[in-house]
Amino acid sequence: MTANVTVIDHPLIQHKLTLMRLTETSTAKFRNLLREIGMLLAYEVTRDLPLRYEEIKTPIAPMLAPMLAAEKKMVIISIMRAGQGILDGILELIPSARVGHIGLYRDPTTLVAIEYYFKVPQDIEQRDVLIVDPMLATGNSAVAAVDRIKEVNPLSIKFLCLLAAPEGIAHFHEQHPDVPIYTAAIDDYLDEHGYIVPGLGDAGDRLYGTK
Ligand SMILES: O=P(O)(O)OC[C@H]1O[C@H](OP(=O)(O)OP(=O)(O)O)[C@H](O)[C@@H]1O
Ligand SMILES: O=c1cc[nH]c(=O)[nH]1
Ligand SMILES: [Mg+2]
């Protein structure tokens, strides 16, 4: 395994990812699969959340029971548009999470990430952040998102995607070696247009039916 990259290879996630890759998968089905995978990925990414123990009473007896230790709810940051698909699934699992949005699109010729929107919770310095986007291709969007989030200084940052290219992982870790990547798969390479091969195509277009 590449340093600081965790491949979440749960069979349910792998099966659903294969369905998402299929050319014939409809927009409605693609969206639903991404939401389901978002939920399953969130389950794995939050595995190391610290717990504290609190005295509670069940109808039968008192006990010391585990509760999440963080004083402030975590923040999920979606890289629009396609990040919205994962975000929806995560919010089903962690409904009280705070949410931030970064609007980025890749310039089709230069593949540079262009920002068009930025809104995150004000007290983010006291919170852990999970940035989500299904695709890590050149890594330009993920790097730009982490650059921006580091400016507002959260307690910690993780990056979660569905598919990563080796080129994107290398670029991301060159810029942000301190930020762990979680992904469901690492594909083979990028084509001449910066698309992940074999990949699943354009995640935003497939999610919203824009092409
Ligand atoms: O690693 P990179 O080379 O930056 O590519 C990955 C980015 O490309 C896609 O977004 P896109 O720019 O297509 O915007 P969209 O979500 O609005 O379609 C994807 O959702 C990532 O944000
Ligand atoms: O393969 C890719 C690369 C970037 N963005 C996508 O949506 N898909
Ligand atoms: Mg797109």
UniProtKB/TrEMBL annotation:
UniProt catalytic activity: UMP + diphosphate = 5-phospho-alpha-D-ribose 1-diphosphate + uracil
Primary role: Catalyzes the conversion of uracil and 5-phospho-alpha-D-ribose 1-diphosphate (PRPP) to UMP and diphosphate.
Binding positions (5-phospho-alpha-D-ribose 1-diphosphate): 81, 106, 133-141, 202
Domain Phosphoribosyltransferase stretches: 7-210
Pathway(s) where this gene product acts: Pyrimidine metabolism; UMP biosynthesis via salvage pathway; UMP from uracil: step 1/1
InterPro entries: PRTase-like (IPR029057), PRTase_dom (IPR000836), Upp_B (IPR034332), UPRT (IPR005765), UPRTase/APRTase (IPR050054)
Name used for this protein in its record: Uracil phosphoribosyltransferase
Annotated source species: Aerosakkonema funiforme FACHB-1375
